[in-house]
Design goal:
Length: 292
């Protein structure tokens, strides 16, 4: 099986299961210490299960298969062009792993972000693996089961004493957050006794955390982990918050609304990759500061 990269330009979990996971996290926050800056270790790193063992995807029909993936190339660590000019990233490697699992001949082609759904409509590709959420697709695509989630997390100065990130533990604590979004709304709803300090940018919020103007920050774990990769001094505190009403129900691969066959193949491949540990392996490679 060969996976070919082409460059037009170079420079349900069941709904019940999803809700159960979210509810468990809302009620019982993980009280583990913050993540260590540096290479991630498989031991002690929490990774959610992405496939529902009670919902078995049907294996695809045997025979020669081909898939054309579309992605972006400017969203590290999910998709980017490396110094050698090759397309790389978490999404790219997940697509490649899907192809290997299906024993399919595949291409992975980058497009500008704003043209991805148009390209799918025009049948320039069979699937989008570009971190597009269902709400952003506006009915122009259907999605596989998720292969990663977009949790929220608390972050604090790495050498500070561990915070108790339960609602009662953060009473009267100053918590920074980007103003006006789901993370601020979540804080105000579930941490009513915390002193919420809104900032007009993630950069300003994180600078306030580093300078100890606030006791902790709260935001999108993916963005915060990238920030911490580039700026030492902070660490996650407690565990991941996965409330779907605020933070979405995970990110899947998008296909055209009438293409249930491809969706079924992709679901089967993703389930097998989750069960084999391959998804966890790729996650640990691209997220040295664990987002979960």
């Amino acid at each position: 099986m060969a996976v070919e990269l082409q460059y037009p330009f170079i420079p349900d979990f069941l709904q019940q299961a999803k809700r159960a996971i979210a509810t468990a996290l809302i009620i019982n926050v993980f009280l583990a210490s913050g993540c260590i800056l540096g290479p991630a270790r498989a031991e002690g790193v929490f990774l959610p299960a992405f496939s529902d063992p009670h919902r078995r995807a049907e294996p695809p029909a045997q025979g020669k298969q081909s898939l054309r993936f579309l992605t972006s190339d400017d969203y590290p660590p999910f998709a980017f062009v490396d110094p050698e000019g090759a397309l790389a990233g978490f999404n790219v490697e997940v697509a490649r792993a899907i192809c290997e699992q299906l024993q399919a001949s595949c291409t992975i082609q980058p497009r500008h972000w704003e043209t991805l759904l148009d390209a799918l409509d025009a049948k320039e590709g069979d699937a989008l693996i570009a971190s597009i959420k269902p709400a952003a697709a506006e009915g122009r695509a259907i999605f596989t089961e998720p292969y990663y989630f977009t949790p929220a997390r608390f972050v604090a100065v790495a050498d500070s004493q561990a915070l108790d990130v339960r609602p009662e533990g953060l009473a009267d604590k100053k918590i920074g957050v980007e103003a006006g979004g789901a993370h601020e709304a979540f804080l105000r709803r579930f941490f009513p006794r915390a002193v919420v300090i809104p900032f007009d940018s993630r950069e300003k919020m994180m600078r306030a955390v580093l300078e100890k103007q606030v006791d902790a920050g709260f935001g999108d774990a993916i963005s915060l982990s990238q920030w911490m990769n580039e700026t030492p001094g902070c660490a996650f505190v407690g565990g991941a918050w996965l409330e779907p009403a605020y933070f979405g129900e995970g990110v899947g691969v998008a296909v055209r609304p009438d293409d249930q066959e491809t969706r079924g193949k992709l679901n089967w491949a993703l389930q097998k990759l989750d069960e084999s540990g391959k998804l966890a392996e790729l996650y640990l490679k691209y997220f040295p500061v664990s987002i979960y």
